[in-house]
Write a structure and sequence with these properties.
71 residues, alpha+beta, 14% strand, single chain, two-stranded parallel sheet
Length: 71
């Protein structure tokens, strides 16, 4: 959630960057910021893998982006 603008938000990153993303969120006062992670690397994956990964992420993305404002 981006409290500065009051907008639901998230980031989708690959596994090597998850700690960086979570630490950055914490350092800017957004410790509850949702970081969604997919296996690395993405560019070497085939269409079936991408489709399966997408299927797993749809519900968490929707749940994150439609949460009610907490301001």
């Amino acid at each position: 959630y981006c409290s500065e603008m009051g907008l639901p938000s998230t980031v989708l990153i690959t596994t090597p960057f998850q700690t960086l993303a979570r630490n950055t969120a914490k350092n800017v006062g957004q410790s509850d910021f949702v970081v969604l992670v997919v296996e690395h690397p993405v560019w070497t994956r085939d269409d079936a893998w991408i489709a399966a990964a997408t299927e797993k992420l749809v519900e968490p993305i929707i749940a994150t982006l439609i949460q009610p404002a907490t301001k």
